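Bench log, entry 3. Co-assembly request; chain sequences pasted below exactly as received.
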Amino acid sequence: MLLKRICWVLLLALLATANSFAAPTKEAGKELFTANCASCHNKNMKDNLTGPALGGVEERWAAFPKKDLYSWIRNSQALVSSGHPRATELWNKWKPVLMSNFPGLTDEQIESTLMYIDDVYKNGNKKPDGPQTGTTEEKKAGSEFPWLFVGMALILGLLAFALMRIIDNLGNVARVQAGDAPIQKTWLDTIYSKGFIAFTVFAVTLIFGYKTVDNATKMGRTQNYQPSQPIKFSHKIHAGDNKIDCQYCHDSARRSKASSIPGSSTCMNCHAAIKKGTISGTSEITKIFASIGFDPIANNYIQGYENWSEKQIEELYKKWIGQEYMSANSLTALDEAGQHAVENQWEGVVKALKDDSNGKIQGPVEWVRIHNLADHAYFNHAQHVSVGKIECQKCHGPIQEMEEVYQYSTLGMGWCITCHRQTEVKFTDNAYYNQYERYHKELKDGARTKVTVADIGGLECQKCHY
Amino acid sequence: MHNDNGIWVSTEDLMQDPNFLQNAEQEFSVENIDQTDGQWSTNRRDFLKLLGFGLGAATVAASCEIPVKKAIPYVTKPADIVPGVANYFASSFVQGGDYCAVLVKTREGRPIKIEGNTLSSVTGGGTSARAQAQVLSLYDTRRIKFAGNVKDAEVHQMNWADLDKEIKSKLAAGGNIRIIANSDMSPTSQRALAEFIAKYPNTIVVRYDQVSSAALIAANNLCFGKSVVPAYHFDKAEVIVSFGADFLGTWISPVEFARAYAQNRKIKGGADNKMSRHYQVESHMSLTGSNADHRILVKPSEQGAAIVALYNAISGNSGGPQLNEKAAEAIKKAAADLKKAGGKSLVVSASNNLMEQIYVNKINDLLGNINTTIEFGNFSNQRQGDERQMARLIEEMNGGQVNVAIVWGANPAFDLPNAAKFKEAFSKVPTRISFNTNVDETTALCNYSAPSHHQLESWGDANPKAGKYSLIQPTIAPLFQTRQAEHSLLEWADSPNLDRNAEQPYYSYLVAHWSTALFPKQTKYSTPSAFWDMSLHDGIFEIPTTEAPVSFNAGISLNPDGVTKPSASELEISFYETVNIGNGQYAHNPWLQEMPDPVNRTVWGNYLSIPLEWDGVNNINGWKDLNDGDNVEVEIAGNKMICTVVRTFGQMRGTVSIALGGGRENGGCGVGYGVNVNPWLPMDGGMIQYYATDVKLKPTGSRDKHFASVQHHHTMGVKAMGKEEKAVINVDEKSLGYKGFQGSLTNRSIIFQTNLNELHKLEEEMEEFHKESKHLNEQTLYPNYSEFFGTGLKWGMYVDLNACIGCGACQIACVSENNVPVVGKKEVARHHEMTWLRIDRYFYGDFENPHVVYQPMMCQHCDNAPCENVCPVNATNHSMEGINQMAYNRCIGTRYCANNCPFKVRRFNWLDYTTADTWPSNEERVFWAEGDDKPYYADDLVRMVLNPDVTVRSRGVIEKCSFCIQRIQEGKLTAKRENRAILDNDVRSACQTACPTGAIVFGNLNNPESEVNKARNNAGAFAYQVLEEINVRPGVEYSAKVRNTNEGNI
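Structure output for the full assembly:
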């Protein structure tokens, strides 16, 4: 009897916990949205992207049972073929853009996502994540000439000189009082004095020595390196204005040592729909199309593109550029400026994409590498992004404000070491760190306030060099 | 004479050769540093020139712009490739009859490392040096790059369609077609062949093996009616007698056998231990013989007599040829042991004499081993060849009866004893086609080359043993315009089953075959595609085999006249296969060429092992006073060749031996090393014999200028007899005086060894030794760091010397994992080999027939490391995880650390071996393969084998074992990302995963549950640190070596 009662209590407790786990939350919704929806649906929920804006989605589906919306999300095409009126309406409006299927999402997960969508739609994105929270230190602070120090040095120099003169004069006064003849020193005498020369030599050696060592250390470093890239890609528009998560494109940063530059196929996730840039128009996005072989006029990928001749490619994309020029300027035929624009933009495509080794337009975009770590230094993005949970901006600077990316940090060893000395390890959040029993004990006893990266071996040679 | 003074490495060691002592005292031999090639003279003017150039170069370099680097992404990123993250693919290593189930590690689509596949019940995750080195042969610059005509040993390109057309017309012209191949374990290849034969019915496949087991197979056919190699269960055998079969190194399936064998060789501390007992009957010391409890020395021509003697001792018969007395006595004791084991024993022989193999079968039958330790249900496909077929083929070709000959992987123009006859006959065949990947000796004689893919580019399968299937999958797109041999055959057979429009036609063919032939054999998967996917994922597919009990054919009569007659000749020679280059099929792989022969420790070529003679008083000399590196002229049956001598302990008096596989003439960078001994091999009853009698040997007075043996390189802690005192002292402390310094009177601990029956005595001794060492080590001013290392991770290793067989798989795995460069023969001769892990070979016991201990020696990661204290720039220091770290970019090359290392494990980059930053004047001295236009590692193709996670070291820096730090870092990151504690599985060192016997265990010492701690605790007092008493606190522990010798001490 007692046993039975205990069983019941346990069962109830179990149910309760299960329930509390499954309850939909906004926070869970945010994660789900970022993981599954954000690649096609705008994060502000108000504007269309590859897919429609999601704000108010529940109202639009209000006429149908909630179940229908769930099945739409899990498998939209199934619902379309079943002849559901709302589904058919949507398909007719958006085809041929297909919505991905998410058969694995539970009702609770969908509900969480919808809660998040509704929250953002109604209250706006008050707490934006990622790109906006970066540091806003001044861009080239280090490069400004230190006028203050030069001024100070000049004033102090003059002061020292005046003091020397005063000492000489006082010495003479003393001599006169003692009855000796005063030694008359001119300015030149002072300058030629042993002490002054010795001091000058010492100072010059010190300054030049310091500068030599300092420059030698910086040799090969390329802080502020800002090469021009084959595509005028703006991080400001993508990460700043549109708030695309860094790891949407640089997806290997969380799991690999390389953050890796996204392939053209990743660009196409959005640019299959966004075929013209707000600033650059067709000139830059056409390069992506020409790289991967997307026909922006017919809205499809070209079969057998790798075998196309340059002439064929030229014809297609010139047509596309011209067509867009005409429609933007409400023309029926290309005017002279239009022809000029077409030629210019095509030249840009050729310059950006033509591979010297095989003379082909097709193929990857050859970006200029900005961050070049020395070969003997090992750096792992996953360690910093996934484990350390460091913001990208910590090393890469206010990337969301950069029209063109430049190297923000020195990438020197001193810079790494400083950070490893200062950064506190998220020691209690990760079961991996349980093995550091002594530190845990010290933290508990209050003998230690924090554990830095340096404390767990972050300054050791083979952390980075092997 | 029995030597009671412990271990030794060579005669120089035993006899305190002054040069040897000097070398042992110093990290680098003086003569070799100064050794000039006539180019090293530097005077003041040169110095000033260099100084001026250096300054100028530095100025120019400093003002140069930093080169623009490109970052090129994928156009469409493949879903399963993440740049910077390795992918592993299950596959198989197959070369003729050599087999290993493997995982291939690829980075950004290129294979860089081979690991064992633990799912396979054949190899169980173990690998061999040959399998490990497979990745390098993929990036061989000498591979044939396209199909074509062969003229003057060069391939002139044709497109595949034209080639197919020409060859098809020749095939269709009628006449006999012969395919020449080695053993083939692939069921799908067999099917492709069957289709080819169906189309051209006058085709016959002729198979032979590089090293023949034809007599074994023929004997099994006669005795048991099974024309195969049976399964041998070394794990079930309590007594093993091997007549010349090197089953741990090269015989049939060494990885499988070594794994099984080692199971009965491990010992435990504080317990009663059992071990198998292993007798090896041979004349030269093989890898297997060096691991045996007893080596019974018989001349090669006495092997038959020895087998008959064993048979007589077991059956109670008498008669048969005369055997030397000592061996006859020993055989009797072995027979008694075998009988006692009662069906739990195993007698094997590598003899290629039919009657001897029949005797061996009969012995096993009498002992009750048939169907227990030897069984035919699980028979092996690893040896199928029969050289008698080749003899027939040569006759046919001579008679003009063969119109088309297709060479498939085999190289008969090199590895047949009658290669000269073969070449002559082969040239009479009008159409000669080769599938081989390199222009080897046979391909050079062909008129068409239809090069097949390298195995890492191929689809395929293997069926090494009955019921054990495994798949081969490509891990890289073909590098060159090659085509798989099976595809070519099917194409020429106009096969309707080959889908020519498929992206990978042979892949579709393979899938189809597995779906029809293998899918029905299992019930686990309901659809062929699920079955295929899982088999491909696992790399293997295994089904239980039905037992096939056999009985000995009573009609077989044993005739002692049929076995080899002992020869009365003064000198006999035996020919053996080494673990590295085989019979030449691996000779073009520099990793394997530079891997020392386990016993005589020579590299780059094959050397004539000669016996050592003890004068009964003080001296041990080479036979005929020959010295290492002397050239001799050897004449066998009128055929003379010049060989270089290496003096080898354990080589029987009156015999010499030499490895097969040297002296390749064509096809790769092994050309020009060693001598081709195949023409010396005699034939008996149509079968190749691996020994010869009536050998004439004549010193030539010349020497091999670059004699390359690593015997005396990096010698450590050698003990020798004090000249005056006749007492054991340590030579490295000789300079300190004999007495009065801590440690100088202690017995340096490098190897501990004993017999099984004296195990408890050793245990007590070792307990005492540990206590004494502890006491000595506590007399220090330095603080105790045990608390410091007690938190977090502390890496450590355990090497079980009882399981270590010295096969060298770990060494090649280390080379592959850590970008260790190949330096070439000349540089090895100058003590400049770079291997981070070496396998030291020590002798003990009887001078004339000593026992061997192998000791893998790598950086010991001392917690109180002598190297760290002496580095002036702190380039080497200690991590809190107990790793002795080496920062290459900080090293300025003083080499103080190497000099101060008691274990001699630090390696210095004397030259720019990896051509990391080449200056042309540097390049001349590093390794060039003959005929290449640039240094070996300067080729971009070869460099694809480099592990991108490990720095390529440049000239002037020290390097050494890092405990595979890149694997440690990766494992730690995986654990952190998964929010969990680190496990044994996360970090395994390259040497550990490569080992076929599980001798090396690596892990976290702070985790009491870790494998390494368990292994150490299990060994109890038998676990020791090398030089434990000198307070360097190594992170590596070894176990004492135990042998199970017969009390009679034969």
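The CA atoms of residues 17 and 132 of chain A lie 36 Å apart. The first helix of chain A runs from residue 2 to 22.
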